[in-house]
């Protein structure tokens, strides 16, 4: 298989760098092809602006980025670094976004990769938008048929991101990435690899995380994706609102079919401050 790891960490000698290296080594040994887009090493341009379009300085009047993106995509006038990343995405069977959690989301350099690479006509604006149909997206689109996964290190405790944790649930934090960035252009999203409280990880814990990451990557085609509801799969009505028969509860879990996947079911134990790095999930509960 072909793996693209889009990797965002400024320090190669970090834990994130170690996990990436272990992933590349294991995948290559198993006979897979791997490309890493190491955004810091590439000095990736994170800001979306006129320079993303060849001749962009000549665009007359105020810049309408969406329109300019569409025109450049159609006319072959996109910046070469953007074209190259789109080529890698089309090449890959599996795309992994690997990053440390920074302020509840991706580091800016990775967000900038998404903003620039996900062009109009490539990642969005596919198919008609109007009447009862609003584009091929959320389960359909250019990247359909591929698997997408988040791999992330986290400073905070596992319990902070569990069902009642102070930070909100990990699934809510990952919603913009998993539903917005991966599911939107068509990826089947597999459960994320999330490693908590990594600043307190000893060598044995780091080894456990590395083995977990490698296992997830090697079995990525075998695991059931998160059962996100396809926009055009019948669960939504003609204004893309979930039909009443699918429940009335609020929250992101509404947009999954049963059984809903919960990536962190850890409630914490008062007085127990043991660092824990890999969270139990709803699927563990089902298997018991
Ligand atoms: C701007 C910013 C915003 C942040 N926002 C959040 C937030 O919203 N929520 C939150 O929970 N956290 C947040 N954090 C913390 C952040 O998530 C962690 O610092 C990050 O995930 C740690 O990953 P790392 O790869 O940098 O690990 P490192 O700091 O490099 O390493 C962690 C531990 O792993 C071990 N290790 C390091 N390198 C290696 C190696 N090469 N080989 C083997 N073991 C190694 C060491 O024991 C080290 O202490 C933020 C941090 C920053 C800088």
UniProtKB/TrEMBL annotation:
<dbReference type="InterPro" id="IPR003680">
    <property type="entry name" value="Flavodoxin_fold"/>
</dbReference>
<dbReference type="Pfam" id="PF02525">
    <property type="entry name" value="Flavodoxin_2"/>
</dbReference>
<protein>
    <submittedName>
        <fullName>Flavodoxin family protein</fullName>
    </submittedName>
</protein>
<feature type="domain" description="Flavodoxin-like fold">
    <location>
        <begin position="1"/>
        <end position="216"/>
    </location>
</feature>
<keyword id="KW-0560">Oxidoreductase</keyword>
<dbReference type="InterPro" id="IPR051545">
    <property type="entry name" value="NAD(P)H_dehydrogenase_qn"/>
</dbReference>
<dbReference type="InterPro" id="IPR029039">
    <property type="entry name" value="Flavoprotein-like_sf"/>
</dbReference>
<comment type="similarity">
    <text>Belongs to the NAD(P)H dehydrogenase (quinone) family.</text>
</comment>
<dbReference type="GO" id="GO:0003955">
    <property type="term" value="F:NAD(P)H dehydrogenase (quinone) activity"/>
</dbReference>
<dbReference type="GO" id="GO:0005829">
    <property type="term" value="C:cytosol"/>
</dbReference>
């Amino acid at each position: 298989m072909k793996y693209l790891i889009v990797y965002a960490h400024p320090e190669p000698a970090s834990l994130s760098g170690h996990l990436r290296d272990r992933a590349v080594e294991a995948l290559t040994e198993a006979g897979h092809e791997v490309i890493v887009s190491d955004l810091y090493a590439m000095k990736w341009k994170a800001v979306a602006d006129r320079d993303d379009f060849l001749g962009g300085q000549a665009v007359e009047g105020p810049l309408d980025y969406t329109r300019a993106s569409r025109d450049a995509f159609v006319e072959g006038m996109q910046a070469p670094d953007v074209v190259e990343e789109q080529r890698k995405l089309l090449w890959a069977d599996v795309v992994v976004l690997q990053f440390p959690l920074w302020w509840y989301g991706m580091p800016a350099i990775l967000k900038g990769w998404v903003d620039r690479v996900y062009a109009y006509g490539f990642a969005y604006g596919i198919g008609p938008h109007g009447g009862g149909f609003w584009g091929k997206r959320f389960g359909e689109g250019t990247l359909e048929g591929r698997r997408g996964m988040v791999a992330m290190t986290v400073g905070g405790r596992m319990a902070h991101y569990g069902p009642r944790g102070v930070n909100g649930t990990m699934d809510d934090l990952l919603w913009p990435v998993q539903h917005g960035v991966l599911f939107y252009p068509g990826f089947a999203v597999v459960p994320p690899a999330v490693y908590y409280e990594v600043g307190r990880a000893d060598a044995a814990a780091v080894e456990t995380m590395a083995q977990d990451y490698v296992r997830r990557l090697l079995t990525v085609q075998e695991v059931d994706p998160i059962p996100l509801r396809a926009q055009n799969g019948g669960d939504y009505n003609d204004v893309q609102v979930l039909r009443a028969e699918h429940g009335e509860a609020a929250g992101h879990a509404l947009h999954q079919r049963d059984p809903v996947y919960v990536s962190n079911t850890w409630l914490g134990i008062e007085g127990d401050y043991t660092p824990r790095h890999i969270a139990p999930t709803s699927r563990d509960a089902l298997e018991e």
